[in-house]
Write a structure and sequence with these properties.
The chain is built from five helices and five strands; from the N terminus they run E-E-E-H-E-H-E-H-H-H. By secondary structure, it is of the alpha/beta class. It starts with a strand and ends in a 31-residue tail after the last helix. Helices cover 41% and strands 18% of the residues. Helix 1 runs parallel beside helix 2. About 9% of the residues have low confidence.
């Protein structure tokens, strides 16, 4: 399975593509899309869209995974990030790819085991998980690779049309999404 991860941002959007057979993961490509400094906001969004569209066309992944919306410090930051995320969703939809979204805490917990891990910890774990010689740089690329790895571990290849990963076990039965929902079998 080939997964394309996206870490949306209005200044810099990270991307990373991995190939996995289910046990081993291999880096295909990673980096960050950056608009020219002080570019008008619509131009920055166009740069993100064009860059992601080109990458999705050349890499031809099976699916796209991206970081979900989180609580920003202020409304303006949240709206700006929402626009960048919307452009990433549009690029994936135009490419005809299924999309899954994960919260920042879920991504960090999956990759590092700790939901409040710092950027450096994520970079180091990505280097270890993908067997790289150096940590992916910039950190947006490492974050995008973390999103892709998170999707591999949580989706089992199943993505709903809504873009939310299916929460089922291998037996096909619904599985709890939190330890609070767990009920032992009778």
């Amino acid at each position: 399975m080939k997964i394309f991860g996206i870490d949306p941002g209005s200044d810099r959007t990270g991307y990373g593509c991995i190939l996995s057979d289910g046990n081993r993961h291999r880096l295909v490509t990673c980096g960050a899309l950056r608009a020219r400094p002080h570019a008008p906001f619509p131009e920055r969004l166009l740069t993100i869209y064009d860059g992601l569209s080109e990458l999705l066309a050349s890499e031809r992944p099976d699916c796209v995974a991206l970081e979900d919306v989180f609580h920003a410090r202020n409304v303006r930051s949240a709206l700006t990030l929402g626009h960048a995320r919307g452009v990433a969703l549009l690029a994936a939809a135009r490419a005809g790819l299924p999309v899954a979204a994960y919260s920042p805490a879920q991504i960090k917990r999956t990759v590092t085991g700790y939901g409040r891990a710092e950027k450096r910890q994520i970079q180091i774990m990505i280097r270890l998980l993908l067997g790289l010689d150096a940590v992916p740089s910039p950190h947006d690329a490492a974050d995008a690779l973390a999103v892709a790895i998170c999707h591999l571990h949580h989706s089992r290849g199943a993505v709903l049309e809504s873009g939310i990963p299916a929460k089922t076990s291998r037996s096909g039965k619904a599985r709890p999404s939190s330890w609070r929902d767990y009920r032992p079998a009778p």
